[in-house]
Amino acid sequence: MKRLVVITAGLSVPSSTRLLADLLGDAAARAVEARGVAVEVETVELRPLAHALADHLLTGFPTGELAAVIDRVRRADGLVVVTPVFAASYSGLFKTFFDVLEENTLDGTPVLVAATAGTARHSLVLDHALRPLFSHLHAVVVPTGVFAATDDFGSDGALQKRVERAAGELAALVAGEVGAPLRPAPSAAVTPFEQLLREAGGDAVR
Amino acid sequence: MLIAENYAKLQHLTDGRVDLMMGRGNTGPVYPWFGKDIRQGINLAIENYALLHRLWREDVVDWEGRFRTPLQGFTSTPRPLDGAPPFVWHGSIRSPEIAEQAAYYGDGFFHNHIFWPASHSAQMVRLYRERYEHYGHGPADTAIVGLGGQFFMRKNSQDAINEFRPYFDNAPVYGHGPSLEDFMEGTPLTVGSPQQVLERTLSFRDYVGHYQRQLFLVDHAGLPLKTVLEQLDLLGELLPELRKGFAEGRPAHVPDAPTHATLVAAAGGAKDSTVYAEADAVTGRSDR
Could B123 and A188 be called an inter-chain contact, meaning their C-beta atoms sit closer than 8 Å? Predict the structure, then answer.
């Protein structure tokens, strides 16, 4: 059973960001199943986690539902991430979630990036903001990102084509032979002391 | 070198009533004061302690490392009292390397056990205990563990909460974040009656096992001196109950923390560790 987590940073109800997230989540699930692989999809709204995220910034540790979500993201086989465009980039809420993840949390995780805005003039936010962010986090970003402006919804079906194409790319990674590497919680790893001594002496660069 | 000398000196002044607890310092601005780089923090802790460990145990040390000039034929003086160096605790919040270091040497491990969830302390202590056994110092449950903690108490728990809250709300680390209640639930912080502090403190054993030292952060959050002293009085009144509780259900094979006397006994008795110089070059005489 593969697990997909869809993360949406939409703020309003109903939210076009959530709408796009649902389109992508459904399409990704269908595309994984089409490859004969069972999959479950969980959608996470960041809005109810906003206070917990601000607390995490101040305390350095996650509480309650946020801790549970982070754990599920760590174990996910793939992510769909969707943000509204705020001030020419991802929203602060969206970025905060990825700011508080411990190092290595997304190592090798396939990620489909998506964004919404009022106009198509913001579409390069996918390539100028989201792609560099997830490259930095060592995630594997699928080639097709999905941007939806307000007038993409309910128009000629071009949006759905992009959704299907991106979902297919994500499914190929999620259902493929090469899964995401096992990511243990960082502090669980032990480095034997003899090795620490050698490293302290400069024999190996960490 | 300065630590080796000063703490050995302190042993002589206090008849051996000295432990040394080491912490790396985890704030960026501190390291440059000493001309160091925080990115080398772990490596510095590993190398510096390896040297300190030898300076106390070998009368004459030849040393070459990465972070200081080499030593040739160096003797740290005074020598440790009765030939037994002070007991050392390695303190760490989140560096498994330091737990590993404590385990390797068979030294004590101290976890600060404040500000963060207790599950984190439990994980670090478990790691230390496993590795202590791995390095052959004894079973995991005989490793030497210390914990921090923080309380604020008044006879009535609501009085404690009402009085502490304004300090908490503006305190370093705690302030302007989650509520007092959230922090009490999520971390070992206990604000309430002496009975509540007693019960909470005795519950720490449930997740770290029987342990040897409990330290408390009291002078924090801008509490006035008078209030801090009142807290110490209240703790003093609670101590007999705390000690009784800690002794309850404690297996006989779990040791107390080492003292100078037990360390000397373990080394086979006190030895005169004075280092006598060879005949000096001017007079040709030795004090031997």
Answer: yes
Nearest to A190 among B65, B96, B173 (CB): B96
Which residues face B190 on adjacent strands? B151
Tell me the chain A residues in contact with residue B131 when contact means C-beta distances shorter than 8 Å: 190
> Does pTM surpass 0.90?
no
- Model-level ipTM above the cut of 0.90: no
In one-letter notation, the amino acid at residue A46 is L
Joined tokens for residue B88: 């050392």
Domain residues of chain B, as ranges? 1-85+258-288, 86-254
Tell whether B92 lies on the interface with A, counting CB pairs under 8 A: no
**CA atoms within 13 Å, Cβ hemisphere of A47:** 15
Parse chain A into domains and list their residue ranges.
2-200
Place of tokens 């259900």: B249
Instruction: Say yes or no: B111 contacts chain A, CB-CB below 8 A.
Output: no
For B228-272, write each residue's pLDDT tens digit. 999 999 999 999 999 999 999 999 999 999 999 999 999 999 987
For A2-200, the fitting CATH number among 3.30.70.20, 3.20.20.450, 3.40.50.360, 3.30.1050.10 is: 3.40.50.360
Given a contact cutoff of 8 angstroms between Cβ atoms, the answer to whether A45 and A18 are in contact is: yes
CA-based radius of gyration for chain A: 18
**Alpha carbon of A191: minimum distance to chain B alpha carbons (Å):** 7
pLDDT for B87 = 98
Give the CA count within 13 Å in the CB-facing half-sphere of A41.
Answer: 23
- Nearest-Cα distance to chain B for A96, in Å, is 15
The answer for residues whose C-beta is within 8 angstroms of residue A104's C-beta and 6 or more apart is: A138, A183, A186
Residue A51 to chain B, least CA–CA distance (Å):
9
Structure tokens at B25: 């310092």
Amino acid (one-letter) located at B87: F
Kindly report the CATH number that applies to the domain delimited by B86-254: 3.20.20.30
The token pair that represents A2 in the structure block = 């593969």
- Judging contacts by C-beta atoms under 8 Å, the chain B residues touching residue A188 are 123
Half-sphere CA count of B270, side-chain side, radius 13 A: 10
Q: For A149-170, how does the pLDDT look when each residue is reduced to its tens digit (9 = 90+)? A: 998 988 778 999 999 999 999 9
Q: What is the dihedral of CA A110, A116, A119, A125, to 10 degrees?
A: -40
Q: Mark which residues 165-194 of B lie under 8 Å from A by CB.
A: 173, 176-178, 182, 186
Long-range contacts of B249-255 (CB under 8 A, 24+ apart): B250/B210, B251/B141, B251/B210, B253/B139, B253/B141, B253/B142, B254/B141, B254/B142, B254/B210, B255/B142, B255/B144, B255/B212
